[in-house]
Design goal:
Blueprint lengths: L4 E4 L1 H17 L1 H20 L13 E4 L5 E8 L2 E9 L8
Parallel strand pairs: 1-4
Antiparallel strand pairs: 2-3, 3-4
Helix pairs in contact: 1-2
């Protein structure tokens, strides 16, 4: 099995950081659990990114996080997975 390289855009990094800070303001354990689930999910995506169907004509794919109302949006470009957003389900996603 080929493991794809991972690139996380600055926007996606900021979305992750903002969510972790929000959860930390409520409960530090929940924040750390969220962070771990995000990065475990990115690892899972990198192992088999084509397992998730494209959700746009541009080839954007999505992975819904377990236990949290967030979705990871990503592109597969060659042998790289590019994480473009990590959005809350109540936020209207942009068309990537």
């Amino acid at each position: 099995m080929i493991r794809y390289a991972v690139e996380i855009t600055p926007q996606a990094e900021q979305e992750i950081a903002d969510a972790v800070l929000w959860y930390a303001s409520k409960n530090k354990v929940v924040a750390e659990t969220f962070r771990a689930i995000v990065f475990d999910s990115i690892e899972l995506i990198s192992n088999s990114p084509l397992s998730w169907a494209a959700v746009s004509a541009r080839g954007v794919r999505r992975f819904v996080l377990p236990r949290y109302p967030y979705t990871v949006f990503f592109h597969v470009i060659g042998s790289t997975v590019k994480i473009i957003a990590v959005t809350h389900h109540h936020r209207k996603p942009k068309i990537w």
